[in-house]
Predict the structure.
Amino acid sequence: MSQRVELTQAQPPRGVSRRDLLRWLTATAVGGGVLAATRGLASALSDSRDAGPLVWLSGGDHLNVLTLLGQRVPTLLELVALELDVRAFDPLQTVATMPELSRFERAPVLVLETLPLAEAGSLLHTEALQPLVNVARTAILLGTPACYGADIVPKAAIASFAALCKEERTPLIKLPGIPVPPQHLVGTLGHLAFFGFPQLDVHLRPTLYYGETLCTHCEFRGDLEQGRFADAFGAPGCLLEQGCKGLVTHNSCSRVGWNERENWCVGAGGACTGCSEPSYPEHDGVGLYGNLTGSRLAGRGGVIGHLSTIGTGLVGLTAVGMGLRVAADLLLGRPDADGQTPGGGRD
Amino acid sequence: MARHELTIPRVEGHLLLVQADDGQIRVQGSRTRDLERWLWGREPRDALFAVQSFCADSGVSHALAATLALDDAMQRSVAPNASAARDLLHSLSLLHGHLRSLYWQVLPDYLPLGALRNYRGTVSPLEAVAARLTQSDAPDWAAVRRHPFTAGEADHLLERMNRVTGALGQLQQMMAVLGGKFPVVMSLVPGGMTIRLGEADVLRLESLLEQVRRVAQEAVVADVMMILKQVPFLAKLGEGGVDYLSAGSLGADIAPEAALFTPGTYVDGTVLPPGNAVGEALESSFYMVRRQGPPERPVIVNDSLKPGAYSWVKTPHLQGRIADVGPMARLAVSHVTGASSVQAGMVAKIEAALGRAILDANTVGGRLLARAGEVDLLLEHASDLLERLQPGQPFAEAGPGLLPGVVHGAAALEAPSGALQHRVVFENRRIASYDIISPSTWLGAARHPVHGQGPLELALNRNGLDLRTPEGALAASRIVHSYAFSMTDAVQ
């Protein structure tokens, strides 16, 4: 039954260089320095991998489209020129159609923001999707509703799609978030192109982006460790007692930030809602703004216990990281004073 | 004519137009997202976050409306610093929505991105895309390249699109300074905002706004004029209704006559006094009213098999009239009430460009110009608001919380595509019911046996379009995009 398209050799670089994309990918990944140092820029560039054509089927809200439109390094138009080979993406299309499979010379990467629903107006019906999943190199679910079921996407649809991927032997990656940081999608595509399939956690999220909790790099981590908690929004201190879910949320926000590293939720004094976790939005009965200390972590002692785990991990990561950072900086160049991604490093 | 279905591209959610045997076009698409009902029983603050997923471009407007409704229920006053910051956030989100709509939804209807293949300019990313699109394995979307512009005009518009895309990023950065991130801002709380801004933050905002101004000021109107010059029938295409509603915004809470967007309604040739309640009819929608409890009360529930229904969009109305909303409605209300003189220049410009009086200019061309004209107004307003920010001063004040028992809260403001209203009932400090009337609900309203057609259906059915033909499909796309319609926003 399967007629999977075999990958051919990578096409020669065109437009913006692969090196630019790789540099951007490694600079924005949570473990970017580790990635670059262990795999190597030169070896990645000489590796004849290719992500394949990108087929991005929108269907729900445009939150993720907006983040990509606002992405400045690289811009959406630069991405089009890159090897990402955008074949189908709603903002680029004049006519709303499904892509013709016969035009694909290589196995595509399929990005879905919603899943098949029996409703009028949906291009995404199972009959249309099955052939795409069949030929896809990888399927990526984008955004929390598509990853875990929320909003109009029932959890049964997630299970059904996972079963379809399993049947068609198409690996599945989940990139949750409301919205998804754009670097997660572009970086994952870059990883597929340069390094192959990324390492995933138990929830099928790339550990590059979802490998650490937000508290690991939060600017209020010192307050958390010292037990200085804000008694109201806008007050100084860690936001744990205001319902912040940073302790249990795996994402890159506190390290990479949002909108060209300009800020992030907690940086603006808002509590993290844990939007990239499978437990979102109920969080085992705690709710969006319910207090973790009173339930899930069973009081302050639970927090301290959790911190010790984080702390042990950090010591190890710091030791390894210091060594690797030197190598990474040599290869990639440091972000400039504005925190912008390096763009003018050595080629 | 055989029944025909057409999916319109570049619309949030799935917008399906169905042309029946009799030629009538109906607006269909995504089912309800049940988000209003999802909020029932939840903590009040949950709404401030959750409503932002209704619509990407209107997300900030929804969050502000939810916050104002909660302020109203708590009877909270808002710190002046927070009021300025909220208005600034609102202005920036409107700017962002307009620029994204005009250059990423509207422009491809006239200059498809496949035209990048023929780009002959010297802007690096565009050259790179052109090189990519001339390769033998170019994507399908690049095959559509026909357009009415000269080569020079096409290159100019593509370069403008590229620069505006950069400006979108800068606007997102500004909203991240104020809200943590964009889309989905996180700093709004009852009585103010959680941010703490210093002098450096305000300077940063000024610098970013200046960069946006260099791209957008006056140039957006000029770009739309260029489209109108080459596609003159836009002056007549897609004529909408003549009833207008503006919720008012950006100063309307302080002094309606001094607001940037004047609140008001213009129905059946008459300016209605404020305070007219908006109703919602369900005759043609997949909903019914059922009494549920305890305590027993009427609630709206889904009924996907309801006889005679064809849409998940309800039918909002003002005294039985389905009003047009959006930039043209804001302009019309401002004009007929005489409350605001800042838009007089735009009225004259539209009348001259279209050769029609402003109240007769609710066409694709008029709506695009009205939207573009707001860009300049919003840039000026954002600049004024930046001067009102007081770095180092608090952005929130302590105040009363929700009282136990039944408490009502309501708020209305202008989203990028039009008037937005949130009405909430809290019961024992929980959300008991949440009712939203979004701009896209007005625009995509299901036709009603008495109230008639909604603006979108009215505009789509006035030109005898045949959706089976490429010309008819393109005209329909142009009409839909001129309203900045969002299907997800229409079906909460």
About this structure: Chain B has 15 helices and 15 strands. The two ends of chain B are 33 Å apart (CA to CA). Chain B touches chain A through 82 residues (CB under 8 Å). Residues 4-111+147-490 of chain B form a domain with the Cytochrome-c3 Hydrogenase; chain B fold (CATH 1.10.645.10).
